[in-house]
Amino acid sequence: MSDESSSTDEKPSAPSGSEDADPKAVDAAPKPPDPVDDLVTTQHTLKVGRRRLRYTATTGRVVLREEEHKDGTFGGHKARAELSVTSYVLDDAEARTRPVTFAFNGGPGSSSVWLHLGLLGPRRVVSGDVGALEPPPYDLVDNPESLLAVSDLVFIDPMSTGYSRAVEGGKPGEYHGYQKDIESVGELIRLWTSRHGRWMSPKFIVGESYGTLRGAALAEHLQSRYGMYLNGLVLISSVLDLSSIDFENQRNDRAHALYLPTYAAVAHFHGKHGRRPLRSVLDEAQEYAVRDYPWVLSRGHRLTSAERAAAVSTLARLSGLTEDYVDRADLRIEHWRYFTELLRDERLTVGRLDARFTGPAAAAIAENMDADPSHDAITGPYAAAWNHYVRDELGYGSDLHYEQISRLVHPWSFKDFEGRPVDVSPKLERAMRQNPHLRVHIAYGYYDGATPHFAAEDVVAHLRLPVERLANIEHAYYEAGHMMYVHEPSRVRQSKDLADFVVRSSGRDT
Q: What is the C-alpha separation between 350 and 356, in angstroms, rounded?
């Protein structure tokens, strides 16, 4: 027995059942300790050309607290969430001229590991590509094309992704929806900026997939809620209006038309257009998708036999499907079914995230493929690389499972859009009207079957902005998929494109 436990200065507890015992104290559950940030800091170097960058990496979880008010009285700050974050800050850089970029992926339910280890971070995973995938256990190498060369980086894992969790006794489901997601990520950005003295730094947001919807709404939120004006917004594989890709609503023909150029590009990649140049195929598909196809779909049973036969022939030729299939589909090609059907005769399915990838069909008669071969190809490398990297190089140990793609966030709440399409383009419009210096860079992959390039273009084409603000939007196209950086030539070019965008948009010499 220790000296401390035998001390006579401490009054012994009253035995259970004695008249001095407090029933409330006996029955009350012990209050969990107030959580604190558990960040770990390490020092690193990265060689970029002839330069050697010295930087500080910080990773772990940051506690988010919310103000409590009762009867108009401030009741303090209550811990609600612990969000995982990894930052890279160049040593001895001038904060006023050094940009900082906040990055996240989408889902909803995706961690930031893809942008982190695939494109932007100082270390990257080597996963291989179509026809030359790396075997386990994979590899992790320096990334001299990292955006760190021109900007500090902060990677954010939203609630229930990565290591992010609600505090003990909290309700993570409160964060599994559009509005709370925006607010929590926005609060983390505000906290990081304030604690690191970066309010006067040029600031950027990079979002991918659903992260573009989050990013556009977040730009408006940061500016309106905190007065934090951004220099730039990067939308990778953009989807700002979910109705543009919605096949669930049987009366919505918009997605069928906007997906056609993607189908044509995919068919071209898999040899359905012979030696014809990709640009020629895309031009024809886009012209048909803009003019004739919407008219054909709008006619319904009013189409003549000749008009319907012509439409069937054109759609089959562009998409690479048979005329019989297009006719039986009533001229409407749903995307999961397309990726299942295109190479059915070879008993292969085509990737949705990246249609350059193929995989063996689980069943040659299935209506929909059982799994996306492009997702299968990258899941293992990124999981292995992150779990090694965070422990062995960043020095952060946690027994929590790093939720790379989390199912825990579903069902995702869009109650803020009840009775109307989920469309944040008005938020982007407001942010760009509010801030005349906000520049937007949009990156598209021609073989992206999740967020098709022509649908994203269509949303931008309908933004209610004056011409001078539209000039702040730029576009970049890659012959790759949803995560275009899986394709090595695209990764190298995209890295250069983003660095150039940050430098041009920061307004200062970086």
A: 7
Token reading at 396: 């952060």
At 349, the pLDDT band (50, 70, 90 cuts) reads very high
CA dihedral 37, 110, 390, 102 (to 10 degrees): -60
**pTM for the predicted model, two decimal places:** 0.91
Strands (E), 319-452: 348-350, 358-360, 439-445
DSSP string, 454-470: HHHHHHHHT----HHHH
Q: 297-331, pLDDT tens digit by residue? A: 999 999 999 999 999 999 999 999 999 999 999 99
The confidence score (pLDDT) of residue 30 equals 67
Q: Using CA atoms in the order 126, 408, 186, 221, what is the torsion angle rounded to 10 degrees? A: 110
Domain-wise residue ranges, the chain: 90-243+378-506, 247-371
- Whose tokens are 């995307």? That residue is 335
Q: How far apart are CA 460 and CA 212, in angstroms?
A: 13
Q: What is the mean pLDDT of residues 29-54?
A: 90
- For residue 211 the two structure tokens come to 């992260």
Return the number of other C-beta atoms located less than 10 Å from residue 285's C-beta. Answer: 26
Q: How many Å apart are CA 5 and CA 75, to the nearest integer? A: 36
Helical segments of 167-304, H only? 178-195, 210-221, 254-269, 278-290, 292-299
Residue keyed to tokens 């559009």: 178
Beta-carbon contacts of residue 249 (< 8 Å; ≥ 6 apart): 243
The answer to whether the Cα torsion of 320, 326, 332, 337 is positive or negative is negative
Tell me what pLDDT residue 5 has.
Answer: 36
Q: Where are the alpha helices (DSSP H) in 142-209?
A: 178-195
What does the block give as tokens for 216? 């556009």
Per-residue pLDDT reduced to its tens digit, 449-477: 999 999 999 999 999 999 999 999 999 99
Is the predicted pLDDT of residue 3 greater than 90, yes or no?
no
Q: Which of 196, 191, 195 is nearest to 226 (CA)?
A: 191
Q: Parallel, antiparallel, or unpaired: how do β-strands 128-129 and 152-157 relate?
A: unpaired
At residue 26, φ and ψ (nearest 5 deg) are: -70, -40
**Cα first-last separation, the chain:** 62
89: left (phi > 0), else alpha (psi -120 to 50), else beta? beta
What average pLDDT score do residues 214-234 get?
98
Structural fold of domain 90-243+378-506 = Rossmann fold (3.40.50)
Element (H, E) at 425: helix 425-434
Provide the 8-state DSSP code for 119: I
The answer for residues whose C-beta is within 8 angstroms of residue 366's C-beta and 6 or more apart is 340
pLDDT bin (cut points 50, 70, 90) of residue 4 is very low
